[in-house]
# Entry
Amino acid sequence: MKKILVTGANGQLGSCLKSLAVDFPSYCFLYADIDVLDLADKDAVFAYFKENELTYVLNCAAYTAVDKAEDDQRLCSLVNCDAVKNIGEAAALFHIKVIHVSTDYVFDGTNYKPYQETDPTCPISVYGKTKLAGEQALMQVCPESVIIRTSWLYSEFGNNFVKTMLRLGKERDQLSVIYDQIGTPTYAGDLASAMLAIVHADTFVPGLYHFSNEGVCSWYDFTIRILQLAGIDCRVSPIETKDYPTKAARPHYSVLNKSKIKSTYKIVIPHWEASLNKMLPLLMK
# Structure
């Protein structure tokens, strides 16, 4: 029986993995958040991995407060880099396979076509820099790992852009949303499914992969569709990034090329609008 540890189990992605676990009764799932296992504590990680005789670690733990990270660099680095290295070192020692989640923020956003895994990285925020450092640390200590970069994650769990727009759309008559940052929303349930497809695959192929939903949009386009599908009557005005200054810089273009993960693991990826339409009713339960 495959024994699978899900870290960051109380976050969006971890919660989606919990929901999908019922479809894999032949696997044994363990769930850990910081109250169960502090990934920054190297000794604790090694002890936990040894005691539980794991087959896979699905690392969903991350520091994702992008603006806050600019003032909290030490904690951000601890979670996004040091903890990942601890996972990798323990996994290498006990022959455990790792699937780790990273971000489109490792790119600077100056591309004009979807980013491939081989494209040069150049993060422009503390968050992006620490996530890239985590990727590099993991590949150095545990090269037999899968790293999945994703973008614009949302779900029925936790706090995210979709929930924020739904709340503001109900509270206000008008919203102003950035239109010159282009990417792809990703439903965490689809990413969780992809991770479990890799676990379930006949052959584990380590390496760097990109995963988001299909299609392309701006935050403005995304908001328009969220409110339309939810039946919320609120005027949305497009604004430029310069009109909504934030502490951390964001990539202006971070669309990801998913060809590698689709061909390697035979994963079919839904369009972002279809996944948004599927997720919204889950908020009403």
Summary: The CA atoms of residues 73 and 126 lie 7 Å apart.
